[in-house]
Amino acid sequence: MDIEEAFKVVGEMGAYQIYLCFLLGVLLQLYTATEALLIALVGATPSYYWDHEEYTINTSHAMQWESEEHEFREWLKEANKSDLQNHLHFNGSFTSIVTEWFLVGDSEYKVSLASSLFFGGVLVGVIFFGQLSDRFGRKKVYLIGFALDILFAVLGGLAPSYWVFATLRFLVGVMNGGMSLVAFVLLNEYVGLSYWALTGSLGSIFFAVGIATYALLGYFLHSWRILALVANLQGLVVIMLSVTCRKTCKVKQIYCGIDHNSSIVNQENSQFYAF
Length: 275
Description:
The chain is mainly α.
């Protein structure tokens, strides 16, 4: 008897599987959506103006026909932090990494770069975490990746400079993409084949809900640092609940070298799936 046949005997969806669907298919997806879309709010650019009345561009090639935009970009190249704070003014009631590190003019690309680094990290994570979970176990790799995800995300909210923030976004992407993949596999190994479409759809639906709730959170929290830290609080709840997850029967068979046709498989199925 193989695993899928055992599912049909003991049941493909029980109380514990429903709990895992809520944990990994709902709560976890709300969190991963927040991380994926974090830069949309913390990287928002409010309207701003340049107080340039007393500024004269320091170059012999400056001419009266030069546009204000060109002068502004040239000034940004020469301005120090004090100049930026005194002469570059942002409107609006919210802060972001743009207002924190003056990512305007020739530095505008850094906002998109931080987003690209995150999704580049996701690519790296999904490539390596699957193999790691096959080798060391789903639950162990998932929990370690999740813990590091939260750690790097919190440090990102406390980052003292842009490049520290960007580096941490890459690391968050690695952990976020990797542990999400492992969680998806972990969930589907606990339910019968006929419920895979349900678990897959559940994750997509609540990922979209997570985007909406993150936008609502950003409406009330105007400080990007507070927003980044609060957004990770739900991650702490999910990881604490995830500690109760059990190692899947399929992984135990791989490690123990159990023959699928042996009676031990039936015992394992009963222990891990008959809830």
